TrEMBL record:
Subunit composition and interactions: Component of the oligosaccharyltransferase (OST) complex.
Family under the similarity heading: Belongs to the OST5 family.
Chief location of this protein within or outside the cell: membrane
GO biological process: protein N-linked glycosylation
Membrane-related topology note: Multi-pass membrane protein
Name used for this protein in its record: Dolichyl-diphosphooligosaccharide-protein glycosyltransferase subunit OST5
Organism domain of life: Eukaryota
Organism field: Penicillium roqueforti (strain FM164)
């Protein structure tokens, strides 16, 4: 299958994002707020259990929240 055939076949199934464009800002903002709260709680009591229960979710929420905020606000030069 050539790249052109793959391109033509993909046009029949358009991409529909999980989070709509209109709600990406609120989702991103809430994820960043959640990351701030959980990172603060993790900073108060750093233990191995805290890494699993607070540190990793805080890092994931921060990463996904930042991506959603970039997608919502756009990048302008």
């Amino acid at each position: 299958m050539s790249l052109n055939e793959v391109w033509e076949a993909a046009s029949a199934t358009p991409f529909i994002p999980l989070i709509a464009k209109d709600s990406q800002f609120s989702v991103g903002f809430n994820l960043l707020l959640l990351a701030l709260v959980t990172a603060t709680l993790f900073g108060l009591n750093r233990s191995f259990l805290g890494i699993v229960s607070l540190g990793i979710p805080a890092a994931l929420a921060s990463g996904f929240g930042a991506v959603f905020m970039i997608c919502a606000a756009g990048v302008y030069v």
